[in-house]
Automatic annotation (TrEMBL):
GO BP terms in the entry: starch biosynthetic process
Name of the encoding gene: gbssi
Residue span(s) of domain Starch synthase catalytic: 3-98
InterPro entries xref list: Starch_synth_cat_dom
Name assigned to this protein: Putative granulebound starch synthase
Species classification: Eukaryota, Viridiplantae, Streptophyta, Embryophyta, Tracheophyta
A Pfam cross-reference name: Glyco_transf_5
The species this protein was found in: Rubroshorea selanica
Length: 108
C-alpha cells in the first residue's frame, strides 16, 4: 500500500495519546485495583509508528517531573519500513528543535 500524506501527524497523535492514557483512563478494573495506572509503567513502542513516543516522554513529561520511573522498550519489526518524512513537517510534531538532529539519517 501507500502511505497517507499525514501519517506523521496520525502517529504523532497516537504516541501522545498513549502517554496520556495510563495517567487518566481506568485501564484495569478488579477488586484489588481500579483507576488509572499512574506513572509507573513500561511503554512498548513498535516500529516507526510509535518511534516518537520516547521523544515525547523525554520532552513533555520527564522534563516536568512526570513519568520519572517510566521505561520504554522499542522494537523494530521491519527495518524496510522506516517512516521517513520531510523535515518541513518537523514543526508539526510538537517537539523541541533540539530533537530535530535526532531524525536526520542522511549523511552530507
Amino acid at each position: 500500500g501507500t502511505d497517507y500524506e499525514d501519517n506523521q501527524l496520525r502517529f504523532s497523535m497516537l504516541c501522545q495519546a498513549a502517554l496520556e492514557a495510563p495517567r487518566i483512563l481506568n485501564l484495569n478494573s478488579c477488586e484489588y485495583f481500579s483507576g488509572p495506572y499512574g506513572e509507573d509503567v513500561v511503554f512498548i513502542a513498535n516500529d516507526w509508528h510509535t518511534a516518537l513516543l520516547p521523544c515525547y516522554l523525554k520532552s513533555m513529561y520527564k522534563s516536568k517531573g512526570m513519568y520519572e520511573t517510566a521505561k520504554v522498550v522499542y522494537c523494530i519489526h521491519n527495518i524496510a519500513y522506516q517512516g521517513r518524512f520531510s523535515f518541513s513537517d518537523f514543526s508539526l510534531l510538537n517537539l523541541p528543535d533540539a530533537f530535530r538532529s535526532s531524525f536526520d539519517f542522511i549523511d552530507g
